[in-house]
């Protein structure tokens, strides 16, 4: 019995329920939120340590044995993702204690935050394909409500697109699960993987694989299904934006990693070939979309898309090194992207706008913030010695070794364009003088921004740490990729007791 | 029977997509309702259509006697229906509030966040 | 406030006053019957929620809220809390989360009674379902009442 496997899900569920009952007591809600996300981060670290030491951990919920009951499985990829969810959840929770207004808190921000984290962690840890769908829905329902928190017009418009496309994706996921169940008669992912190795008809498997690809592709924001993302991510409160940017699309990416390494490896040349095209197109369209934007958070939203392309590239090349790169990239991306959104929130707090044209002169007035922006921005673009450099370097090296020249070319060009985009923000927000007519705008002033600086600074330090201490992180990613490439480890861990 | 169900599912999917492509938001939501029902029905058909008793084990026995229906698929559909119900209830509240803010039942009036 | 919203039927209103307690008792019956026989927290919660909803349609939103006594979201919160907590006792006897734990009580007159964590879980589900369904229904009905009022004034 491994308690730690279920804790990262149980803790946010419990605190979500607790904050819901504490609805009328704002202070108690805030204390419970800080405690809850902190405990979740600790339990996630415990899980990672245990998984690193003892290999893949399994917990049979309710003591119903696999493949009949629902299992929760923690391999290194899951554990790493849970830790990242813990870090970004804790950071945004602390950040929102200051940034969230009373009015938004009164709409149930804290319970929804916990529910979202429970859904995310559940999706990372479950070993049952239908349970994955359920966690996806838990996450989506919470994210729907978080998205319209405040109820402004742009939020409504963004939410309608977000809700529609995500519901389409869920319906496709459900159909795909139904087809898979009809084919194998089981829902346990390890059991499905085992049964599919003896399947006679590879054609139908490929069809189901493509259904999964489309469904998770919509959730991950991959080309050509990403339109909901830039239409909605810049509309909610900035702490919500940061959390979405860090986690939601990554759950889609994680699901792609899971099913395309464990279940659908029958026809790698075809399925992963398509994935590679998707990766290239996602990178390129994302970064080009960002180049045309002049709103802080919209630029960052488009960059999420292009970064998703890199992660899928790691999966699509499907060599050991490429998977290491993919996992490394996810780690780097979640930290950096959440941080950039938090920086944009602080800029908004100080200046009252997200429009680059109206901003300026912040290098002179807030040099510390300028520095804290530059660290994740350069990391995103892939400057050494920050985390983004190693992430891109591993991926490009893997591409060269696999002799997939065109994707290497795309990845390099996109890296350059990312740098252009980040420098555009730098020049517009921090370097140029602020236009006269907007000079006196100030939303909140700098009161109470110490905690915000602390959060952003902490995340920036993590970026630097991943960059400077790349060696242990690389080893962890390497071990995770090793588990991904040997599905038998996962299958034996889940079904082992039966044999 | 499977053929009939296949056509029903196909019909539901196409009706759903047709409704979702309309400009009206209310029709969009109707499309989403049809879509989730189509997916549920597909799941139901995939689990195998057979005329069976409820899978209950008689007292004293260790396994059910005779042909029984697959309980797992039904549990899945029940779960999916509940989730679909929750999400669609949310969608209805959302379009109601969106209508109050935007004052139009027209997707073409909702392009502010796209560019 | 909701005069346009509520149905103006004397028969329905009178019937609702009698049906409400009956349906609530029936929902508790379904709740306790669950686990071994058809029933359980989910369906019981739906019956209870529909009882209050019927009352809301027959009389009005405000008195439906008075009948409910608790805020729907509080019910959701407590239900979720009870549901999560019901999974915890298993951990103390060294079993995975949500493993059923049973307690056999010997009561005078009634005989043997088995209670366990699944019942607790069902109670949690019961509360969550009532809370969620009524939260949606009441907020929609109130929004409707507000716009009606608004239109009436204009």
TrEMBL record, chain A:
It is found in: Cell membrane; Membrane. GO terms for cellular component: plasma membrane. Residues 128-417 form the NADH:quinone oxidoreductase/Mrp antiporter transmembrane domain. InterPro entries: CPA3_Na-H_Antiporter_D (IPR050586), NADH_UbQ_OxRdtase (IPR003918), ND/Mrp_TM (IPR001750). The chain crosses the membrane at residues 6-24, 31-49, 69-95, 107-126, 132-150, 162-183, 203-226, 238-257, 269-292, 369-398, 404-422, 451-470. GO terms for molecular function: NADH dehydrogenase (ubiquinone) activity. Belongs to the CPA3 antiporters (TC 2.A.63) subunit D family. This is Multicomponent Na+:H+ antiporter subunit D. It comes from Ectothiorhodospira marina.
UniProtKB/TrEMBL annotation, chain B:
InterPro entries: CPA3_antiporter_subunitC, NUOK/Mnh_C1-like. Signal peptide: none annotated. Its main location: membrane. It is a multi-pass membrane protein. It comes from the Bacteria. The keyword Cell membrane applies. The chain crosses the membrane at residues 6-21, 28-52, 72-95. The keyword Amino-acid biosynthesis does not apply. It is found in: Cell membrane. Keywords: Cell membrane, Membrane, Transmembrane, Transmembrane helix. GO terms for cellular component: plasma membrane. Belongs to the CPA3 antiporters (TC 2.A.63) subunit C family. This is Multicomponent Na+:H+ antiporter subunit C.
UniProtKB/TrEMBL annotation, chain C:
The chain crosses the membrane at residues 12-32, 38-57, 78-98, 118-141. InterPro entries: CPA3_antiporter_subunitB, MnhB. It is found in: Cell membrane. Keywords: Cell membrane, Membrane, Transmembrane, Transmembrane helix. Pfam families: MnhB (PF04039). It is a multi-pass membrane protein. The keyword 4Fe-4S does not apply. One of its GO terms (cellular component) is plasma membrane. This is Multicomponent Na+:H+ antiporter subunit B. It comes from Ectothiorhodospira marina.
């Amino acid at each position: 019995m491994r308690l730690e496997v279920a804790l990262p899900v149980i803790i946010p569920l419990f605190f979500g329920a607790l904050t819901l009952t504490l609805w009328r007591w704002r202070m108690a809600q805030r204390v419970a939120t800080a405690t809850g996300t902190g405990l979740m981060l600790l339990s996630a670290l415990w899980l990672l340590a245990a998984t690193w030491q003892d290999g893949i951990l399994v917990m049979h919920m309710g003591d119903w044995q696999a493949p009949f009951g629902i299992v929760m499985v923690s391999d290194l990829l899951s554990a790493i993702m849970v830790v990242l969810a813990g870090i970004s959840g804790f950071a945004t929770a602390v950040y929102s204690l200051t940034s969230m207004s009373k009015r938004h808190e009164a709409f149930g921000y804290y319970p929804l935050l916990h529910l979202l984290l429970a859904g995310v962690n559940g999706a990372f840890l479950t070993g049952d394909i239908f349970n994955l769908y359920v966690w996806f829905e838990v996450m989506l329902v919470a994210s729907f409500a978080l998205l319209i928190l405040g109820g402004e017009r742009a939020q409504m418009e963004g939410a309608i697109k977000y809700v529609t496309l995500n519901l389409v994706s869920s319906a496709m996921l459900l159909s795909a699960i139904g087809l898979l169940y009809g084919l194998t008669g089981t829902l346990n992912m390890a059991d499905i993987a085992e049964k599919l190795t003896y399947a006679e008809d590879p054609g139908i498997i490929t069809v189901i694989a493509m259904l999964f690809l489309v469904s998770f592709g919509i959730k991950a924001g991959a080309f050509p299904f990403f339109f909901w993302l830039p239409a909605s991510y810049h509309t909610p409160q900035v702490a919500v934006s940061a959390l979405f940017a860090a986690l939601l699309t990554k759950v889609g990416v994680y699901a792609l990693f899971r099913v395309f390494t464990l279940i659908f490896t029958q026809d790698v040349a075809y399925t992963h070939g398509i994935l590679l095209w998707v990766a290239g197109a996602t990178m390129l369209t994302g970064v080009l979309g960002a180049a045309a934007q002049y709103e802080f958070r919209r630029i960052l939203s488009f960059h999420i898309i292009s970064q998703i392309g890199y992660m899928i590239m790691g999966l699509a090349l499907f060599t050991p090194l490429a998977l290491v790169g993919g996992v490394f990239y996810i780690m780097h991306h979640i930290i950096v992207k959440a941080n950039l959104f938090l920086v944009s929130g602080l800029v908004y707090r100080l200046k009252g706008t997200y429009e680059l044209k109206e901003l300026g002169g912040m290098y002179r007035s807030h040099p510390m913030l300028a520095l804290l922006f530059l660290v994740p921005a350069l990391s995103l673009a892939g400057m050494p010695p920050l985390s983004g450099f190693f992430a891109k370097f591993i991926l490009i090296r893997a591409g060269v070794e696999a002799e997939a020249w065109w994707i290497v070319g795309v990845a390099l060009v996109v890296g350059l364009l990312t740098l252009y985009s980040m420098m555009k923000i730098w020049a517009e927000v921090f370097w140029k003088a602020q236009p006269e007519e907007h000079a006196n705008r100030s939303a909140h002033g700098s009161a109470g921004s110490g905690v915000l600086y602390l959060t952003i600074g902490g995340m920036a330090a993590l970026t630097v740490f991943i960059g400077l201490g790349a060696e242990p992180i690389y080893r962890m990613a390497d071990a995770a990729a090793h588990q991904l490439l040997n599905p038998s480890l996962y299958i034996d861990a889940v079904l082992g007791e039966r044999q | 029977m499977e053929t009939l169900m296949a056509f029903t599912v196909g019909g539901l999917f196409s009706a759903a997509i047709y409704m979702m492509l309309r400009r009206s938001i209310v029709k969009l939501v109707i499309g989403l309702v049809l879509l989730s029902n189509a997916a549920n029905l597909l799941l139901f058909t995939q689990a195998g259509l057979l005329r069976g008793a409820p899978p209950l084990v008689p007292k004293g026995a260790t396994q059910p006697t005779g042909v029984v229906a697959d309980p797992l698929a039904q549990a899945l559909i029940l779960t999916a229906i509940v989730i679909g119900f929750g999400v669609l209830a949310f969608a209805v509240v959302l379009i109601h509030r969106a209508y109050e803010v935007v004052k139009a039942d027209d997707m073409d009036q909702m392009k502010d966040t796209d560019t | 406030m909701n005069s346009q919203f509520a149905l103006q039927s004397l028969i329905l209103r009178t019937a609702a006053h009698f049906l409400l307690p009956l349906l609530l008792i029936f929902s508790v019956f379904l709740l306790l019957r669950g686990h071994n026989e058809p029933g359980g927290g989910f369906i019981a919660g739906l019956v209870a929620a529909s009882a209050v909803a019927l009352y809301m349609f027959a009389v009005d939103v405000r008195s439906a809220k008075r009948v409910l006594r608790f805020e729907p979201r509080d019910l959701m919160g407590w239900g979720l809390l009870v549901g999560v907590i019901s999974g915890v006792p298993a951990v103390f006897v060294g079993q995975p989360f949500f493993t059923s734990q049973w307690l056999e009580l010997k009561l005078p007159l009634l005989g043997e009674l088995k209670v366990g964590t699944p019942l607790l879980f069902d109670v949690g589900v019961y509360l969550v379902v009532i809370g969620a369904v009524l939260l949606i229904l009441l907020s929609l009905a109130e929004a409707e009442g507000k716009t009606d009022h608004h239109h009436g004034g204009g």
